[in-house]
Design a protein that fits this description.
Elements (H helix, E strand, L loop, with lengths): L29 E6 L10 E5 L5 E6 L5 E8 L13 H8 L11 H8 L3 E6 L4 E8 L3 H13 L7 H20 L6 H9 L14 H4 L4 H11 L5 E7 L3 H12 L22 E7 L6 E7 L8 H12 L5 H7 L4 E10 L4 E9 L5 H18 L3 H17 L4 H15 L5 H10 L2 H11 L6 E7 L58 E4 L5 E6 L5 E9 L14 H8 L9 H11 L2 E6 L3 E9 L3 H13 L5 H18 L3 H14 L13 H5 L3 H11 L5 E7 L3 H7 L26 E6 L5 E9 L9 H14 L4 H9 L3 E11 L2 E11 L3 H18 L3 H13 L8 H13 L6 H11 L2 H11 L6 E6 L1 H9 L5 E4 L8
Parallel strand pairs: 3-7, 8-12, 14-18, 19-23, 19-24
Antiparallel strand pairs: 1-2, 2-3, 4-6, 4-7, 5-6, 9-11, 9-12, 10-11, 13-14, 15-17, 15-18, 16-17, 20-22, 20-23, 21-22
Length: 952
């Protein structure tokens, strides 16, 4: 089951009453149901109420952490949009953060950030939601904020806010769709799969030309039509008292009048009578893409789980047919199959990215042969066990945070009207049979017509699978009545002073996890903590070294990355497919990866299967089998990946920026991943030698977190006691460069819709949680570390040039850097550089104000409540203790520094470390469009290629 696809939607269809014509009825919230846990069943206990104005309230009491998560979901997504006004639901999401009658523009982010919380919103086809996770003492303030924009938005809307957010959305589209390889594949598929006018025939982000046509009145009507309390659910989970919380919800939301009636939408599923061939040329892709999409099923349909199982067997993971036929044979960089399910329809999609030497027609032929192979081989008992176990484990792990629990309840409520769907979904998964899988294959895939999309690299000679044969038919379309006529705005009438911002409740008790430690006889350091919230265990293993070892052998840079990937392949007793199958049957994961200074191993297991998972971990760690076939395949994938990376502005910017700071000849810039020359020269003996020399218990650290005590954890790791130790010396990296004057560097990506900007320098500061490094984190927070920082408010909220701009200090054991960055509108590239430098310079000269410091202290201090919630967060905290030999009490020292530091001390550090006269400015974008403006700024400009080398 792919939960990430389960969005939802309802749509128009309805004669409506105007807002002003519907009076709020009196009365109290009505209890609809109360769900409790019985025995050990997997369920989220909750209480569900409905207010007289139609607002649904779901409360999930959970005292495991001093947090609450608030989610307000409106049953309106892009499927409520009118033809010709695509992207409006998502655009409106942006506008909901721009202030309301009692919340000034920008204060929504500021208030939640100051409260130590995180916040965001999201829009999909079927719904829009707004959510925040905050310390429990901030709950009332969150309800005040959410209710104010539900009931008091429209008078705060201005043309200027409208234009800024329209520009921001355009930048978001550029960053996530127009400016990346295959970013438009979904758009081409959707408009050719669904009938003209179907709300799924365009993407949630919408079309730029249609966004350009909408106005403020469209926005106001959208609010009046869809944003009434009767089309919303507020779900609150965490450290709360249900009775008190319900009273607060009724206080702040109860006076908001009902909106117009909203009925569930119903659109016919797409019907294809023949294959529809379409194609387009991609400005960024280096390899072609074949995408085949069949109509699927709606969310919660009885065939949803069988289709998930079918997709896994044919096209997901090492045991799939596609992996065997495409990836293992080195015919494709990737080949996959997936089933997505939304409220009005579903899609079954096959995607193949063939390697050079393979045409798209070749890829299509092999897809057809693979499907025929599935028909012959069918569904094995083992494949079904794998699917069920992994699906169940993924479900359980998704509930590890209060936000995960709340999201599950909110989604189920708006889709079905019943928040309690966990049991149903798990039952559907467990009930899948081999016959079900074959039935859905025959019903939805075998011989069925599809949208067949060919994505072609720019300037190449590759041909599409077949000539385009389909044009969207717009004839006979009749737009439905979306119910916008006669809408009026009626504000709530309260019996309290809504202008008075609620204060804080009592500060929550924040508990650093209780940590146990041990060192094995052969030198392995272990730290752990027990957390029984969900029956799951996470483990992080770090073997020091990683890319560092390339410093003594630059010609083998990238070897660490290759070794890590090879360790995910065969072992002495299992093929890669066999060990993956065994892990999937447990719902467990073991993944090995390389970093600059370590090889990392990430392990996840349900508690009941931990012993079996440790047996497989032992096999992966201590019995790898390195084969020439795996090496050749991984090298080919890596070398093609280098080519692809050079077309992506953001990736190019990060890579080239590092090479400017450290020098193109400094191996630390490519030690882990390597480059075309070094990776090509890596041999099987190199891989074996790296493992034999550098894998040793004395450079190994382990963090284990979850539903397991110290004794059981140590017992499960006992296999490591016999691991023979060897001495390993770690090289020291060469330092980077210093710059006497600010210089601009330019990398040309022709046709780039956005420019990527990086500004900064190497500050030579090592990680220090209580020294200047930590104090600079505090200093930078209001410059570029928070959403409402100087930099982001200027470039995003004031000017609309970017989807997000930021700055920060980053350090490890080997020095660090200050970097400011953003992806910006191409036409605003030079202006963005000016504003970046102005903000940094002004902050260096003028520093932080007492009011800004107070905000920073409150925000960072309150955020401690979110630091230790999930297993992953606990593991990250404990890993830091091991990596830097810290005591858990260092957080107390940080809190003391935070609460007592003065503006003068921070300003002294800012003056020292934010010298704009000695920084690098890197711009990656379309030279033809941006160079004339950049030349006017007066900086010396050095042109580089995508490898960071000077252009000749």
């Amino acid at each position: 089951m792919n939960k990430s696809f389960k969005s939802a939607l309802l749509v128009p269809a309805v004669a409506l009453m105007s807002l002003g014509a519907i009076a709020q009825t009196g009365g109290q919230p009505k209890l609809v149901e109360k769900v409790t846990r019985k025995g050990t069943e997997l369920v989220i206990p909750y209480e569900k109420y409905v207010l007289p104005n139609g607002l649904t309230v779901v409360l999930a009491e959970d005292h495991s952490d001093p947090l609450v998560h608030v989610d307000v979901t409106y049953h309106v997504g892009s499927a409520r949009e009118e033809i010709g006004k695509s992207g409006f639901a998502h655009f409106f999401e942006h506008m909901m953060f721009q202030g309301s009658d009692h919340v000034a523009n920008g204060d929504h982010f500021k208030i939640i950030t100051e409260a130590g919380g995180t916040l965001n919103g999201s829009t999909n086809r079927d719904r829009t939601n707004y959510y925040e996770t905050v310390p429990a003492n901030q709950l009332e303030k969150m309800l005040w904020l959410e209710s104010d924009r539900m009931g008091f938005l429209l008078d705060a809307v201005t043309q200027q806010k409208f234009e800024v957010q329209r520009a921001t959305v355009k930048n978001e589209r550029g960053q996530n769709y127009d400016n990346r390889p295959y970013g438009l594949a979904g758009e081409y598929t959707s408009k050719n799969l669904y009938p003209y006018g179907h709300p799924y025939s365009w993407l949630t982000i919408g079309y730029i030309e249609e966004l350009n046509k909408v106005g403020v009145n469209d926005l106001k009507n959208f609010f009046l039509r869809w944003y009434g309390p009767n089309n919303a659910t507020i779900t609150i989970g965490g450290d709360l008292d249900p009775k008190q919380t319900l009273a607060l919800v009724n206080k702040y939301f109860g006076s908001i009048p009902r909106g117009p009636v909203v009925k569930n939408a119903s659109f016919p599923a797409p019907v294809l009578t023949a294959d529809r061939y379409v194609s387009y040329t991609d400005n960024y892709a280096k390899l072609p893409l074949l995408s085949i999409t069949y109509p699927g099923v709606k969310v919660y349909d009885k065939d949803m789980s069988p289709l998930d199982a079918l997709s896994e067997i044919i096209g997901q993971g090492r045991n799939s047919i596609f992996y065997k036929n495409f990836v293992k044979t080195r015919k494709a960089a990737q080949a996959s199959m997936g089933s997505s399910n939304t409220e009005l329809a579903g899609e079954i999609t096959i995607r193949v990215v063939p390697f050079p030497g393979q045409t798209l027609a070749d890829a299509k032929k092999l897809v057809d042969e693979s499907l025929t192979e599935f028909e012959k081989t069918g569904v094995s008992d083992e494949a079904l066990v794998r699917f069920k176990a992994s699906a169940e484990a993924n479900y359980i792990n998704s509930l590890s945070s209060v936000s995960g629990k709340v999201s599950e309840l909110a989604q189920a409520q708006y889709l079905t009207g019943n928040p309690n769907q966990i049991g149903r979904e798990l039952a559907d998964i467990r009930a899948v049979t081999k016959e079900d899988v074959m039935r859905v294959y025959n019903k939805y895939v075998k011989g069925k017509p599809a949208v067949i999309l060919s994505v072609l690299p720019k300037g190449g000679a590759l041909q599409p699978v077949a000539a385009d044969n389909y044009t969207v038919n717009t004839a006979g379309y009749k737009a439905p009545d979306y119910g916008y006529a006669g809408l009026t705005y009626k504000k709530p009438t309260d019996n309290f002073d809504r202008a008075a911002k609620p204060g804080n409740g009592a500060n929550p008790a924040i508990k650093v996890p209780a940590i146990w430690s041990a060192t094995t006889a052969n030198g392995i350091k272990i730290l752990g903590t027990q957390n029984s919230e969900i029956p799951s265990v996470s483990m992080d293993i770090s073997i020091k070294g990683g890319g560092l070892h390339a410093i003594n052998n630059p010609g083998k840079a990238g070897l660490a990355g290759i070794v890590a990937r090879m360790m995910n392949e065969d072992t002495k007793n299992y093929t890669a497919e066999q060990i993956t199958s065994e892990l999937n049957k447990l719902g467990s994961q073991i993944f090995i990866y390389a970093g600059f200074d370590n090889i990392g191993i990430s392990v996840s297991s349900l508690t009941k299967y931990l012993p079996k998972t440790m047996t497989l971990l032992q096999e992966r760690m201590l019995n790898p089998k390195f084969t020439q076939d795996a090496l050749d395949r991984i090298k080919k994938q890596t070398l093609e990946g280098f080519k692809q990376a050079k077309t992506q502005p953001a990736g190019v910017a990060s890579s080239v920026y590092s090479k400017i700071l450290y020098g193109t000849d400094n191996v630390r810039t490519y030690a882990t991943g390597g480059n075309e020359e070094t990776v090509a020269g890596i041999t099987l003996q190199d891989v074996q030698d790296y493992y034999d020399k550098y894998f040793s218990p004395s450079v190994t650290q382990i963090v284990i977190v979850g539903d397991v005590n110290q004794g059981t954890a140590r017992g499960n790791l006992a296999f490591l006691n016999s691991w023979a130790d060897k001495k390993v010396s770690l090289p020291t990296p060469v330092e980077g460069k210093t710059f006497d004057k600010t210089t601009m560097y330019l990398v040309d990506i022709p046709g780039a819709a956005q420019s990527e900007i990086r500004i900064g320098y190497l500050d030579k500061l090592n990680y220090d949680p209580t020294g200047d490094y930590y104090k600079l984190i505090i200093a930078n927070y209001i410059l570029g570390g928070a959403f409402n920082s100087h930099i982001n408010l200027n470039l995003r909220e004031k000017r609309g040039w970017t989807y997000g701009a930021r700055s920060g200090f980053s350090s490890n054991k080997y020095g660090g850097d200050f970097t400011a960055s953003a992806g910006v509108l191409a036409t605003a590239t030079d202006s963005s550089v000016v504003e970046f430098m102005k903000e940094i310079r002004n902050y260096q000269q003028n520093g932080i104000t007492p009011e800004e410091l107070k905000f920073t202290q409150t925000s960072i201090g309150q955020s401690d409540a979110r630091r230790y919630e999930t297993n992953d967060q606990k593991a990250a905290f404990i890993s830091r203790l091991l990596e830097y030999d810290l005591k858990p009490t260092y957080v107390d020292d940080q809190n003391k520094i935070l609460s007592t530091i003065t503006p003068a001390e921070l300003n002294q550090l800012s003056a020292k470390y934010l010298d704009t006269n000695k920084m690098v400015i890197l711009v990656v974008g379309d030279k033809a469009r941006i160079l004339p403006g950049l030349q006017k700024l007066g900086y010396p400009i050095v042109e580089l290629d995508a490898d960071g080398k000077p252009k000749q």
